[in-house]
Amino acid sequence: MVGKGKAFTKNLLGVDVYYELYPNKDATNKPVMVLIHGFLSSSFSYRRLFPLLKKDYTVLTVDLPPFGKSGKQTTFVYSYENMAKLVLQLLQSLSFHRAIVVGHSMGGQIALNMSKLKPDIVEKCILLCSSGYQKRMSSSLIVSSRIPFFHMWVKYWLGRKGILGNLYNVVYDRSLVDDEMVSGYLQPFTNDDIFRALTRMIRDREGDLGAEELKGIETPNLLIWGEEDRVVPLPIGVRLSNDLPNSKLITYKKTGHLLPEEKPDYVTENILEFAQS
User: Fold this and answer.
1) Where do the AB hydrolase-1 domain residues begin and end (predicted)?
2) Does residue 105 have an active-site annotation?
3) Which residue, of 114, 175, 220, 223, has the fewest CB within 10 Å?
4) What pLDDT score was predicted for residue 191?
């Protein structure tokens, strides 16, 4: 039986973590399905996906700090490795010892870091237009981030295209952008504390996992990509697929970066087939 979701906040590693749990009593012998969102997003980005996945799995959605409803403390270390440790600690606190991790965009790097840290817990990964091969921020930007009120420049830079411009950039079919989507994705820009935390993230974020590190990850990976992705272009997916030794790449035509919103039915079908194989 599929249960209704419940929202919780738990303090882990010194930061408040917001998550939603959708239990499925018929899936107690299956790993939990963990959904991790991308940069400047939240669990909202999975709103069309988790209602489909929870029919077959217990589903856990997480708002990574400082995004969504999670804490925005400037004392937290916003590295990908630390975020991965945070999600792993959340799983441990909930007594989940097996997981299938779905990561969209930046969330894909968190999923890969989780696989690297705890391959005994992460049984499989699904990378949806995952970020890859990004370097650490430049030293000049890291130094500049210590200037007082630098967070206001971060706010300006991230919001310069406006919410519509940002959404049009991540979807192929612009007709998908409606009032509900605008409201949901506008949320990160409504609290200035997030920009203070993102200023800290400029200093903390290491580069993405390199080729040699990726080649050491034996966890089975399914990569799903939109062929018209303008944020993380398909060649990144091809390169990731080549570097990850146990991986498969699927691409969708006429699809952009926001796969969970654009093709939820197809993505769910691919995820379930891969998860149950």
Assistant:
1) 31-130
2) yes
3) 175
4) 85
